[in-house]
Amino acid sequence: MRELKFDAVEVGDELGAITHVVDQETFWKYAVASFDYNPVHCNPDWVATAQPFGIPETVAHGMMTWSFMVTVATNWAYPSMLKITKLSSKFVRPVPAGTTMTCSGVVMEKHVISSGKNFVVVDLKAENQEGELLGLGQVEVVFPD
Amino acid sequence: MGSVDLEKFFETEKQKEFDTDFFKDAEDYEVWEEIDFETEDEIPGERAFEIKAEDMKYYAAGVLDDNPLLTDEEYAKSSPYGGLLPHPIFHTQIIFWCIGTKGRGNWIRTPGARNPGQYLEIYEPFRVGETIHIGMRPHDRWIKRGKYYLSYEINMYNQDETKKAKAIGTLILPKSREDIRTFIRGLRGLDD
Lengths: 145, 192
What we know:
The structure holds two protein chains of two kinds.
Chain A: E1 14-21, H1 24-34, H2 39-42, H3 44-50, H4 62-77, E2 83-91, E3 100-111, E4 119-127, E5 133-142
Antiparallel strand pairs in A: 1-3, 2-5, 3-4, 4-5
Chain B: H1 13-17, E1 43-44, E2 49-50, H2 53-62, H3 68-71, H4 73-78, H5 91-99, E3 119-122, E4 131-144, E5 147-157, E6 163-173, H6 177-184
Antiparallel strand pairs in B: 1-4, 2-4, 3-6, 4-5, 5-6
């Protein structure tokens, strides 16, 4: 465990990025983990003709992409006992199998309220191997000190 | 056109029990154009979710997160947290479980639904041993660029009625029951 203090955090601080290569097995395992068995993620035969995203391939769950993005924040916050309280996401591009997804975060706002209520807003994003945006997110992280 | 057999991945009790076939009963799912927005009271889910360590650990594994606070019970127990932490998006597992297949909110199982983005507030992290139940109500329904959006507010409570989290769950859905039937047949049911 480490101890990240509110006073030491600056707007513009970058959080450690993570990278995952996702494939059909990744989608299946996430379906089992989340109970979201929508065939758009799990059934390549059906997607070949139904094409909900306009492509004949399965795509990653948005909630999995969001989870990857949020892990950037938990890796930063949890070891210092910081609380993640509000989260949002927007998914802008489907993520087919074979995508190399890199998720990153940066402190965008520092809210100086009072001890125990101070918080920062972290912007998160997910990009593919071409640098194209896949998803955006925000989390509010509250400092206990 | 049924679900792919994913039993080889099952590890938890709930995974073995959950109905994975989203096509079955799909013609009876709630439909965008038929949602009742007059409801004031919270609508309960079909069932509660008793949180076991295996549930949290498998969710972390499913999102390739190896943080020991999420995956290692002994490590987490010896940390200041005193026990496993859930990944913040673990609520997804709880919501799909609690909504089930027959009751209100089952539109989240609609084949071909698309996820435009989500919102979540966490008041207290879920803990192993809690039993979570949900209360939901229609939140919004709108049309944008020819697509049909539906959102529900879903509140999550523990056995002491402590509100643990609130989600605003949103999907882009087929508009009508006939559109869902089109999708079930494997034909395109949404515009790009």
